[in-house]
Amino acid sequence: MKTLLCTCLVITYLTSALSANDWPISLDMACNKALSAVACTFEFTNNANEDLYLLKRGTPLEGLFSQFLTVSVAGSPIEYDGIFAHRLPPTKDEFVLLKAGEGISASVQITDAFSIDTDGLYTKWFGAYTRQRAFRVFDVYNRIKGGLAGYAVTYVNGGPYCKPSWYGYTYRGYSTTTVWICNAFYAFPVSCGSPGTYTKEFGLIHEWSHAFGNTFDHVYGFIQSQDLARFYPDTAVDNADNYGWNYCEWQ
């Protein structure tokens, strides 16, 4: 397989035959990132001493109309979200003439068919992308935003259940309006800092995700939350710490 590491993405072309030593056509691939888009250029070269016809179907030469490549971020595969076509047998207009010694190239924007957070932050905290999990993440953040805008939230210092190591606590739901603040909360700086730093801002995102997003406490901690995303993404999108760490890395 032809593999390229580019802007935190591993992009692998699926036609492994092209890398075989005796295959007459070679393939070069290069990718680049511009803002949130990732584009890749594929160049096919005829190394034989005769002209060949190359079937465009299932290759970049026809555009991004099939899953002819795989994409992963930080070791986690990204789900193909492009077209699935039910096709008839190929016709002659689906072949392109590639003369001996000549090449042909095509470029595709892979972010048209792979929903990629190109900075890797979504995958880091919520695992491999699927529409269902991404909707859950969006819903939690949207509910936090809506809850803070639509309700008067009460913060109570020193709740009756506070323990020395507790930031604070609240109740799970979609419209809980009280957060109890414990003594440990005041030992930390206010705003999100370097990755893995406990702050008041992180703690409030954690509690708000419970109160408005109905999240759980499956694991605590910077490393533990990343491991949860990598190995148990369905659980990560319901874990309060993952929202706190993800939010702070965006700040």
From TrEMBL:
InterPro entries cross-referenced by the UniProt entry: Lys_MEP, MetalloPept_cat_dom_sf
Residue ranges of domain Lysine-specific metallo-endopeptidase in the record: 111-249
Family matches, as Gene3D superfamilies: Collagenase (Catalytic Domain)
Keyword Signal: yes
Segment forming the signal sequence: 1-20
A Pfam family annotated for this UniProt entry: Aspzincin_M35
One GO MF term attached to the UniProt entry: metalloendopeptidase activity
RNA-binding listed as a keyword: no
UniProtKB keywords: Signal
Protein name: Lysine-specific metallo-endopeptidase domain-containing protein
